[in-house]
């Protein structure tokens, strides 16, 4: 790992501690440039009314895909099946979709989320025992990226490696309290990884590829899974900052278990407007990452998303990132690169081969930068710094 990834460039402030200190104005390092701020307070009421109206309309809500029939039948994924068609349409039009009847027990989902809520409610001194560093990111964190003087996000997190077994975070990184946190998280991780493997099959077929193509191309059984528990405290000036800056996810798939009460995730549409996601009860929110955009030769695109915060309520979510094996070169599938007009562009591979380890290191240095990382790949080698 590069020298700049050894330690954080400045002392780390815990956002939760700031929020609970009673401050009336956020520190300058959390204030976003005007172009990156959410809707200003004067427009908040109108925006909320408009959002409620929009969320009642099927043409604005992100698609919901029911996996029940596919799981019940246990059959091969068909190109003409309703599930495959729905996922294909969602990936082309949104890059995001929700899944219901997905095979993960609702009680396990709720228990895992509550276990991590319990951790963030522990005393600060106890949580500090798990303070992370940019060497691995494992543990309790409050910033992404290592650029000195960067504008920070209003949120804390806990990051862990779940799979494969050889890469799993050692016991020292797992919190002791709540006592069931590790057991629940591991069971939850195994269940969500099975869901990811099913979605990989559906994505492959939806792209006109062999059912096992994506899984094999991304490293087979060597694919990785990481978990990030996100905690977004109340914020006295939510119009000036974000819980998580706009970005696309670097991996293959992200499966998000959102807060059951508080909305916060926003998805950017092609025209540039931000849509706030209304989670369906006991559903997962799924989005394709940069590696799917690369392998599909931009037929399916990863989409910018961000998290807003509010002054009245805290918010917690669990994000499981399904990633390629780190040392496997990823490039567009030859069948898709050869197809004229794939993704609206010319025939030919749009992206050079690159391992996920190299790509992820670049992102960790730079932090969240919208779609800049994936766009930097087109037609050239990714910059080293």
UniProtKB/TrEMBL annotation:
Keywords of this entry: Iron, Jasmonic acid signaling pathway, Metal-binding, Oxidoreductase, Plant defense
TM regions (residue ranges): none
GO terms (BP aspect): defense response; negative regulation of defense response to insect; regulation of defense response to fungus; regulation of jasmonic acid mediated signaling pathway
Names of the cofactor(s): L-ascorbate; Fe(2+)
Residue ranges annotated for the Fe2OG dioxygenase domain, each copy included: 223-324
Any Pfam family: DIOX_N
SUPFAM superfamilies xref list: Clavaminate synthase-like
Single GO MF annotation: metal ion binding
Catalysed transformations (reactions): jasmonate + 2-oxoglutarate + O2 = (1R,2R)-12-hydroxyjasmonate + succinate + CO2
Keyword Iron (UniProt): yes
PANTHER family: OXOGLUTARATE/IRON-DEPENDENT DIOXYGENASE (PTHR47991)
Family the entry assigns: Belongs to the iron/ascorbate-dependent oxidoreductase family.
This protein's name: Fe2OG dioxygenase domain-containing protein
Annotated organism of origin: Panicum virgatum (Blackwell switchgrass)
């Amino acid at each position: 790992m590069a020298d700049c990834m050894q330690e954080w460039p400045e002392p780390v402030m815990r956002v939760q501690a700031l929020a609970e200190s009673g401050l009336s104005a956020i520190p300058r390092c959390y204030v976003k440039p005007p172009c990156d701020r959410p809707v200003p307070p004067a427009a908040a009421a109108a925006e909320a009314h408009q959002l409620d109206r929009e969320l009642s309309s099927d043409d604005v809500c992100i698609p919901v895909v029911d996996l029940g029939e596919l799981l019940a039948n246990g059959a091969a994924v068909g190109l003409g099946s309703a599930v495959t068609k729905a996922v294909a349409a969602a990936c082309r039009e949104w890059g995001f979709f929700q899944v219901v009847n997905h095979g993960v027990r609702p009680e396990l989902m709720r228990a895992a989320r509550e276990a991590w809520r319990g951790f963030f409610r522990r005393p600060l001194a106890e949580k500090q025992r798990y303070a992370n560093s940019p060497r691995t990111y494992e543990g309790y964190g409050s910033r992404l990226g290592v650029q000195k003087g960067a504008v920070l996000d209003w949120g804390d997190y806990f990051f862990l490696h779940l799979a494969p077994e050889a890469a799993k975070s050692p016991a020292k990184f797992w919190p002791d309290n709540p006592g069931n946190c590790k057991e629940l998280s591991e069971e939850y991780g195994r269940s969500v990884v099975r869901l990811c493997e099913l979605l990989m099959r559906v994505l492959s077929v939806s792209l006109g590829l062999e059912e096992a193509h994506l899984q094999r191309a991304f490293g087979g059984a060597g694919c990785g899974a990481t978990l990030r528990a996100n905690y977004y405290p109340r914020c006295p000036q939510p119009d000036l900052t974000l819980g998580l800056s706009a970005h696309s996810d670097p991996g293959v798939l992200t499966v998000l278990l959102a807060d059951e009460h508080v909305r916060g995730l926003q998805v950017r549409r092609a025209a540039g407007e931000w849509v706030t996601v209304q989670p369906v009860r006991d559903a997962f929110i799924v989005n394709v990452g940069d590696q799917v955009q690369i392998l599909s030769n931009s037929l399916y695109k990863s989409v910018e998303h961000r998290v807003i915060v509010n002054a009245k309520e805290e918010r917690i979510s669990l994000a499981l990132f399904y990633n390629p094996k780190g040392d496997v070169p990823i490039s567009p599938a030859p069948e898709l690169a050869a197809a004229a007009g794939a993704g609206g562009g010319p025939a030919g591979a749009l992206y050079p081969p690159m391992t996920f380890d190299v790509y992820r290191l670049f992102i960790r240095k730079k932090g969240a930068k919208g779609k800049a990382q994936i766009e930097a790949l087109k037609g050239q080698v990714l910059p080293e710094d």
